[in-house]
Amino acid sequence: MAGRDELRVDDRAGHLAAAQRAVGAVSRGRDVPAAELAELTRLVGAAEAAFADDAEVLLAAFQFAFRSGDLSRAGALAERRLRLAAAGSAEAARALCNLGLVAHRLGRLDDAEGYLTRALETSRALGEPEAIARDLGNLSLVPESRGRWDEAEALLREGLAVATAQGTDKGRELAAGMRANLGDIAWERGRREEAARLWREAEAEFGRLGVEKWRREFAARRAKLAGPDASAGA
C-alpha cells in the first residue's frame, strides 16, 4: 500500500490503484482492523479528492464505502456518478444499480425497486448481457425482501440463464451469486435439500474464481445447514 508521501496529486494511475487495493482489502469477508481501515479510508479519500469527476475513481470509492458499511457515503458517490454519466449509458445503468443496492440495504424498498428497474431497462436497451444478468439478480432482492418468492425466483432464473450463457468469468460469478440467492429462497420455502445443493454449488464456484467477498454470508448459510432446522421440509 502506498505511503502517505508517495502519490502526487496528479498521479491518476497511482491514486486509482491505491483505491482499488483498498476495495480489495474490504472485499475478503473479514474484519479489517481499525487502524488499517482508517488508512484505507484516507487513501480512497485522497483519490476521490484528486479526481472528483473520474468515473473509475468514483466507482472504486463507491465500492469501498459500500463494502465497508458507509451507506450514506456510498449513496452520495453513486448519485454523483449518475449525474456525470451520459443518459442511457452503461455507466448510468451501473450507477442506478448501485443506488438501488444502497436503498435496498437501507430498507427503502420502493426507491430500490425504482432505481433497479431503471438500471435493468437501460441495460436491456444497450443489449449488454452481463449487465442485464447483474440487474435482474439485484432487482430480485426487492420481491425477496417483500416475501414475494415467485417473483424473486423468476427474476433470478432469468438472470441465471443469461449469465450462464456468457461463458465468461464475470458471467460465472454472477451465476454463482444467483444460485446462492435461489438457495436462500428455497430455504425460506422449506426446500432444504435444494437450498443446500445451490449453496454448495455457488460457494464452490466462488472458490474456483477466487471471489472472497461473500465469506460471511456462506458461513451463515453453513450454520443454518448445521442447525436444528436443517432437515425441515427436506
Q: Provide a count of the helices.
A: 12
User: Pairing-aware structural class of the strands and helices?
Assistant: mainly alpha
Largest sheet: none
The helix/strand series, from N terminus to C terminus, equals HHHHHHHHHHHH
Total DSSP E strands: 0
What is the rounded distance between the termini? Answer: 49 Å
The rounded Rg comes to 19 Å
Shape: globular
Give the percentage of residues in beta strands. under 5%
The helix content, as a percent range, equals over 70%
Mean pLDDT: 92
Low-confidence stretches: 1-5
Question: What does it look like?
Answer:
This protein is an all-alpha fold. The protein has 12 helices and no strands. α1 runs antiparallel to α2 and α4 (71-84) runs antiparallel to α5 (90-105). The longest helix has 20 residues, at 169-188. The model is unreliable at 1-5 (pLDDT under 50).
